């Protein structure tokens, strides 16, 4: 398992555009971290530093306390698997199964290990029944799930997902949520970039908010989506999930998910004895 | 006004149609939302409405027909569609022309190809960029944009062409919430000028406040067609693979826990 650290990381593109400034982050193994922020706030640039695709122009990126500046991308790829936003930039095999097998195979896994990893990844994303089809016969959303499965099958200690729920329907989002839960349950780390605040609140233990290349908020969903943080969210054009807004309006504290909100409503109803009126704000009842 | 009546369509090389007997009327100034699970036929419907299927991707209309402003379009060449129906694909990377050096040129390409004067082209381009709040991207290279930025640039290109009908396949998929709101208001403005819009989208929260009508597809068939409140309130919506808007979702959850939404929710 790999712990990750950004130490004063800054990045300026060759054309002079500054994408990151003074980013300090420590990410321990076994957590799900969501990175959110406006388009162009530096989210994608940030995660591309994790496997050396981008090298910081200031500061350091460390894996397990070791600066990765001199490590090659090919070496780092064994620790950090990145699934890009556009699946068509990474799909190349003519069969779904071969696409998923490629990663574990080049990492030198044995044939039975490869087969097991492929089966597991395909079933989590719900693509086992199309294992022998051509990836390009699948629609965009299933190609995206395939790209996720391909990187997941590599079993890297860190899995990075760039906008994994884009274009997914309700069922697809549920599958992505399972990927996150499964990977974290195995002690590995998931880092996902997302604009879907509901997905973020429901599936992630930690939320990092980026604004203009800096980290502007960092905490649990309950902290980051609490009413006190709304002005900071608004500065990067984000809005807390609907449940959080309703909870705050009803004085129920921070209720970032539907379940947290309804639980708070039920508790609140019981506390007030009737279940039909609003009582005074009680932050403790939110979770 | 664009009309589909009883349209069935199958892709080349596949025996079974993916759209069955679909009726759709897009009146001028109307915004119709299309919802459904992935692979329920939403994207195919977008291609058929814009004439790209069968016009460009092949395949065959196995039933029904399409007319624009009362004129039957069966067998008409693709260029007759292109000038009358704009389309924005799901994946903006596939839509950028690849022949321009800057976003400004990219957006200007459409009106120029439609024969707009130089002055008119510049004015339309500026206006489209401003509507979507991306004036700052004007000098950027199209191939160096983020996914969300590319999506806004593609939309700006479409706005600059001022199409009479516009079909959008998940126009906000890669956008941040602010970008999604900008797109929604740009679409409302466009509809107010008389453009008829068809918007396929998973985000029912956006469609709820944007659309005059919602059509739900399941396995290539229309399973519901009506006012947003009616379709999004339909108990079968989740069976069709569609998440209802947050307000309706929460309403149901609250009921399931034995509370009265009218009493406990704002």
How does this model look, in words?
The complex is a heterodimer of chains A (287) and B (266). Mean pLDDT of chain A is 91; it is low at 275-287. Chain A has 287 residues and is an alpha/beta fold. Chain A has a six-stranded mixed β-sheet. Chain A has a four-stranded antiparallel β-sheet with strand order 2-1-4-5, with no helix packed on it. Chain A has helices spanning 43-47, 73-76, 96-106, 111-124, 140-152, 170-185, 197-203, 221-224, 230-235, 242-249, 258-272, and strands at residues 4-12, 18-27, 32-37, 58-63, 66-67, 80-83, 158-162, 189-193, 206-211, 214-219. With 266 residues, chain B is an alpha/beta fold. Helices cover 38% and strands 22% of the residues of chain B. Chain B is built from eleven helices and ten strands. In chain B, the strands form two sheets. In chain B, strands 6-7-8-3-9-10 form a six-stranded mixed β-sheet, with helices on both faces. In chain B, strands 2-1-4-5 form a four-stranded antiparallel β-sheet, with helices on one face. In chain B, α4 runs parallel beside α6 and α5 packs across α6. Chain B is globular and about 65 Å long. The N and C termini of chain B lie far apart (39 Å). The mean pLDDT of chain B is 92. The A-B interface holds A 37-40, 44, 85-86, 88, 139-142, 163, 166-173, 195, 197-198, 237-239, 241-243, 246, 249-250, 258-259, 261-262, 265-266, 269, 275-278 and B 36-39, 43, 90-91, 93-94, 146-149, 152, 170, 173-179, 202, 205, 238, 241-243, 246-247, 249-250, 253-254, 257-260, 263-266.
């Amino acid at each position: 398992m790999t712990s990750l650290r950004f130490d004063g990381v800054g990045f300026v593109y060759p054309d002079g555009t500054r994408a990151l400034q003074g980013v300090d982050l420590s990410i321990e193994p076994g957590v799900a971290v969501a990175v959110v922020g406006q388009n162009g706030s530096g989210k994608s640039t940030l995660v591309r530093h994790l496997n050396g695709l981008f090298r910081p122009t200031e500061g350091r990126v460390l894996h397990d306390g070791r600066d990765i500046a001199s490590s090659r991308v090919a070496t780092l790829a064994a620790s950090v698997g990145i699934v890009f936003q556009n699946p068509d930039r990474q799909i190349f095999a003519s069969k779904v199964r071969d696409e998923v097998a490629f990663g574990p195979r080049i990492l030198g896994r044995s044939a039975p290990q490869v087969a097991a990893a492929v089966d597991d990844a395909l079933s989590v994303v719900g693509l086992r029944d199309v294992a022998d089809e051509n990836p390009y016969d699948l629609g965009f959303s299933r190609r995206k799930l395939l790209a996720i499965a391909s990187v997941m099958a590599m079993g890297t200690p860190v899995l990075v997902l760039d906008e994994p729920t884009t274009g997914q329907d309700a069922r697809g989002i549920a599958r992505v949520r399972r990927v996150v839960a499964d990977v974290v349950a195995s002690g590995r780390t998931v880092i996902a970039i997302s604009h879907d605040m509901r997905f973020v609140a429901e599936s992630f233990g930690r939320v990092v908010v980026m604004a203009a290349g800096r980290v502007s908020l960092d905490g649990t969903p309950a902290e980051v989506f609490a009413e006190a943080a709304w002005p900071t969210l608004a500065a990067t054009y984000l809005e807390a999930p609907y449940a959080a807004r309703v909870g705050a309006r009803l004085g129920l504290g921070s209720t970032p998910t539907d379940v947290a909100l309804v639980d708070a409503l039920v508790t609140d109803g019981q506390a007030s004895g009737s279940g039909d009126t609003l009582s005074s704000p009680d932050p403790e009842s939110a979770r | 006004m664009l009309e589909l009546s009883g349209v069935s369509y199958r892709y080349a090389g596949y025996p079974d149609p993916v759209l069955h007997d679909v009726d759709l009327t897009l009146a001028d100034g109307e915004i119709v939302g299309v919802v459904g699970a992935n692979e329920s036929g939403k994207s195919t419907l977008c291609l058929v409405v814009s004439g790209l299927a069968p016009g460009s991707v092949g395949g065959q209309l196995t039933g029904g027909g399409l007319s624009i402003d009362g004129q039957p379009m069966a067998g008409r060449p693709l260029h007759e569609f292109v000038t009358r129906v704009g389309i924005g694909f799901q994946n903006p990377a596939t839509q950028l022309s690849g022949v321009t050096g800057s976003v400004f040129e990219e957006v200007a390409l459409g009106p120029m190809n439609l024969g707009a004067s130089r002055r008119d082209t510049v004015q339309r381009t500026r206006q489209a960029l401003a509507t979507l709040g991306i004036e700052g991207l004007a000098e950027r290279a199209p191939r160096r944009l983020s996914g969300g930025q590319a999506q806004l640039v593609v939309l700006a290109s479409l706005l600059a062409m001022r199409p009479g009908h516009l079909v959008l396949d998940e126009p906000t998929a890669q956008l941040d919430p602010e970008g999604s709101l900008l797109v929604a208001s740009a679409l409302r403005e466009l509809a107010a000028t008389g453009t008829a819009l068809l918007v396929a989208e998973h985000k029912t929260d956006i469609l709820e406040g944007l659309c005059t009508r919602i059509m739900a597809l399941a396995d290539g068939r229309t399973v519901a067609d009506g006012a947003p409140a009616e379709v999004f309130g339909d108990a079968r919506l989740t069976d069709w693979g569609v998440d209802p808007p947050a307000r309706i979702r929460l309403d149901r959850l609250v009921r399931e826990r034995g509370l009265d939404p009218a009493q406990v929710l704002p």
